[in-house]
Amino acid sequence: TVFDFGGRRALVTGAGKGIGREIAALLATCGAEVVAVSRSADDLTRLQRETGCLPVVADLETVEGVQQAVRAAGAIDLLVNNAGIALLEPFLEATPEAFDRTMAVNVRAALLLGQAVARDLITRSSPGAIVNVSSQSSMVGLPNHAAYCASKGALDQLTRVMAIELGPHRIRVNAVNPTVTLTPMGQRAWSDPARSAPMLARIPLGRFAEPLDVAQAVAYLLSDAAAMINGVTLPVDGGFLTS
Ligand code: NDP
């Protein structure tokens, strides 16, 4: 493998499906001890059987759920805030419930987990790295994605502030910003060709992302190969954002 995470312990949220599952599996292949946090226990049992990742079932939508995950995880060197939800609603029908849930999972959980991991790293005088899984939709508007786009814009800004405040402690914080990725979430939102065709037409590489495309970018940002990279929001979008 390209990256060596031997002796390092990683926490990946939303590791049961899609992009998070691919990230957890890749980090484990590269030698990390991986704590896999997600909501559905059976997804994590399967992941453990196939990759050796340690399962932690928690609902990151609540503060208590985040605290439970932190307690179960132990000392973490590498954190990937990947868990996210997309509750699509036309703007005129957007509800406070969907907005609050989206912000809680996509932004607040990343803040609280980042805080807990960083405090522990600082106590141990140990370097670390954090990657937040944002989206191209932090930088462009998409119809029906009001809460989602707002949450990813917020996550990019959270990434920058964390990078500035944690950099002096040798903790790097970056984000990846994927285009449409073929996961359960991606298939839900984009399986209709009438919706996917115009999006595909704006991606110069002519395809959507695979979970592995995103996982490899995350692994790079976590690795020492990215030792001087801090505070970036890295598109994994085949050129969508420049088109
Ligand atoms: P999926 O819906 O396919 O998988 C999400 C995973 O996160 C599931 O394992 C899910 O568990 C878990 N999860 C969701 N909510 C919670 C919660 N409250 N507590 C704990 N775990 C939770 O999503 P993707 O893999 O597609 O997305 C992963 C990340 O990538 C998200 O942040 C998303 O916004 C981002 N992204 C996705 C894109 C795409 O097109 N797919 C494009 C750009 C960014 P369970 O199924 O049990 O609820």
List the helices and strands and how they pair.
Elements (H helix, E strand, L loop, with lengths): L8 E5 L4 H12 L3 E6 L2 H11 L2 E4 L5 H11 L4 E4 L14 H28 L4 E6 L12 H21 L4 E8 L5 H7 L2 H9 L9 H12 L10 E4 L7
Parallel strand pairs: 1-2, 1-4, 2-3, 4-5, 5-6, 6-7
This protein binds NADPH dihydro-nicotinamide-adenine-dinucleotide phosphate (NDP).
Report what the structure shows.
With 243 residues, the chain is an alpha/beta fold. It has one domain: 3-Layer(aba) Sandwich (Rossmann fold), CATH 3.40.50. It has 8 helices and 7 strands; from the N terminus they run βαβαβαβαβαβαααβ. Strands 3-2-1-4-5-6-7 form a 7-stranded parallel beta sheet, sandwiched between helices. Helix 4 packs parallel to helix 5. The protein is globular and about 50 Å long. The relative contact order is 0.15. The mean pLDDT is 97. Bound molecules: NADPH dihydro-nicotinamide-adenine-dinucleotide phosphate. The site of NADPH dihydro-nicotinamide-adenine-dinucleotide phosphate has 28 residues, from helix 1 and helix 6.
- What is the average per-residue confidence, as pLDDT, rounded to a whole number? 97
What portion of the residues fall into strands of 2 or more residues? 15-25%
Distance between the termini: 33 Å
Bound ligands, named by name, code or SMILES: NADPH dihydro-nicotinamide-adenine-dinucleotide phosphate
- Total helices: the number is 8
Supply the helix-strand structural class. Answer: alpha/beta
Side by side, the strands of the main sheet go: 3-2-1-4-5-6-7
Globular, elongated, flat, extended or rod-shaped: what is the shape?
A: globular
CATH topology: Rossmann fold
Secondary structure tally: strands: 7
The helix content is: 40-55%
**Uncertain residue segments:** none
**Overall tally of structural domains:** 1
